[in-house]
């Protein structure tokens, strides 16, 4: 897919790269599944860059708008999955 990831241009280059890596992990969780610990590590780094819940929610919503992927659902799966397990997020049901 071709779209722009929601980022804050005040972040350093390393922070932007790390946030984009987190978004890529969310994509993998929806598309083919991802190792829980890989996603957890990416989310922890994301939270170092975006510590506030309000900003996190805003970025999650912006990412969902451009990609269709629900970040919250993938992060929620971390808590429900054990170390070494794979996370695969079910597609979002569309309303008719």
Describe, in short, the structure shown.
With 96 residues, this protein is mainly alpha-helical. It has helices at 13-31, 36-49, 53-67, 71-79, and strands at residues 34-35, 86-87. The longest helix is centred in the first third of the chain and has 19 residues, at 13-31.
Written overview of the protein:
This protein is mainly alpha-helical and 96 residues long. The protein is built from four helices and two strands, in the order αβαααβ. A two-stranded antiparallel sheet has the order 1-2.
Average pLDDT confidence is 94
Major sheet, described briefly?
2 strands, antiparallel
User: Between the first and last Cα atoms, what is the distance in angstroms?
Assistant: 24 Å
What's the assembly state of these chains? single chain
**Overall SS class:** mainly alpha
- Element-level helix/strand string: HEHHHE
Helix content: 55-70%
Strand order of the largest sheet: 1-2
Low-confidence stretches: none
Strand content: under 5%
User: What is the count of DSSP helices, taking H or I runs of 4+ residues?
Assistant: 4
The outline comes out as globular
User: If you compute it from the alpha carbons, what radius of gyration comes out, rounded to the nearest whole angstrom?
Assistant: 13 Å
Give the total of beta strands: 2
Task: Set out the fold topology.
Elements: H1 13-31, E1 34-35, H2 36-49, H3 53-67, H4 71-79, E2 86-87
Helix pairs in contact: 1-2, 2-4
Provide tags for this entry.
96 residues, mainly alpha, two-stranded antiparallel ribbon, 4% strand
């Amino acid at each position: 897919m071709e779209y722009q990831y929601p980022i804050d241009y005040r972040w350093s280059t390393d922070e932007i790269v790390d946030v984009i890596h987190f978004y890529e992990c969310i994509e993998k969780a929806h598309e083919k599944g991802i190792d829980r610990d890989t996603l957890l590590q990416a989310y922890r780094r994301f939270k170092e860059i975006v510590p506030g819940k309000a900003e996190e929610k805003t970025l999650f919503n912006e990412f969902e708008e451009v990609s269709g992927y629900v970040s919250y659902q993938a992060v929620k799966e971390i808590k429900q999955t054990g170390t070494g397990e794979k996370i695969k997020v079910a597609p979002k049901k569309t309303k008719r």
